[in-house]
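Side project, low priority. Logging it here so it doesn't get lost.
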Amino acid sequence: MKKIIYLVISFLTLTLFFTSCSSSNDSNLLSLNEFIESEDNIPDITILSPVTLSNNDMFPINGQHQYLRLKMVKGIYYEDWSPGAHVGPQWEGYYTIELTDEYGNSIAETDLSRIYKESLLFNAPFEIQFDDYNNDGNMDFTIGQYTTSNGRDYKLFTLRADGKVEELIIKDYSSLFISTTTGYYSTKLTIIENGSFKIEYYDNSQEKYFEDVFKWDGNKFIKADRNN
């Protein structure tokens, strides 16, 4: 008889214990759900560092264990899925180009807002494409922005030995409108000979493509006469 009473008491004790645990868990889950469903308690999206849109390993380019990065340091992110020139993610703002060593230590950083008068807009990460267009031994590259469905406007830059980035001057041109490209936000230019390159663009008014040639004079690029 005592054994039966002991078993009954043990069973009741275990039942009360598990019931208590279950109630406690339900209470915790309810509190968590209430927290999530309360908009006032949901944190805003937080970005803790500059946003890198282009990360380029320089070892295949110049043999150095370095990285050249295009970073948005001020700006906004949003998405636009309506049909148009820019569809999807949008990173619009002000950018720097930074050269770092293989461990991420900064060698030099260039503020592009000193070169561009307006904010820049990219809607996808991309690779910068390099070549030496003025035959001075430094790597040059382009960065483009959308202009029309027929092409983009590209500025031409050079990476100096100290890691600074400078714009290469093109006489009478603030940028080059190019239709035939090897990349959307950065394109290679077609080298004709040392110190000269050509571009191809589409002229809507004449409904055909044209080529322009630019030659380096030691300080800047100058457009060559089409008749030459």
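Brief comment: Residues 213 and 224 are 5 Å apart (CA to CA).
Revisit when time allows.
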